[in-house]
Q: What sequence folds into this?
């Protein structure tokens, strides 16, 4: 029996990797495949999925939303609002508190006029 070609081995590895990342079917556990999807807004996408297991045949719909910002964009759009995560809010508050403390130290060291 001959060995599979490197290209075939690579394609099989890529297929296994995709299946590991894919959402599992709620009934048989095999990977789901996106059939179609549409943008509903800047932060929401909806579509249909189907099970890759032909013996199962399950089909359903999904909705994906962007729920929280962990790191703010360097190019934010004014019309896109995604709330900060608790951790990001805490980091921002700490940074602001440190900045305020530095300002107080600098202002207290300035000579009076």
A:
């Amino acid at each position: 029996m001959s060995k599979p070609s490197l290209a075939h081995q690579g394609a099989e590895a890529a297929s296994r990797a995709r299946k590991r990342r894919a959402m599992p079917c709620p009934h048989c556990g095999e990977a789901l495949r996106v059939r179609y999807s549409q943008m509903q807004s800047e932060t929401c996408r909806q579509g249909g999925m189907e099970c890759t297991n032909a013996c199962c045949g399950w089909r359903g719909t999904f909705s994906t939303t962007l729920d929280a910002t962990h790191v703010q964009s360097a190019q934010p759009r004014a019309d896109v609002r995604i709330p900060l995560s608790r951790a990001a809010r805490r980091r921002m508050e700490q940074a602001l508190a440190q900045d305020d403390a530095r300002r107080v130290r600098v202002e207290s060291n300035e000579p009076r006029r």
About this structure: Residues 22 and 63 are 15 Å apart (CA to CA). Strands lie at 32-41, 44-51, 59-65. The mean pLDDT is 85. Residues 79-108 form one domain.
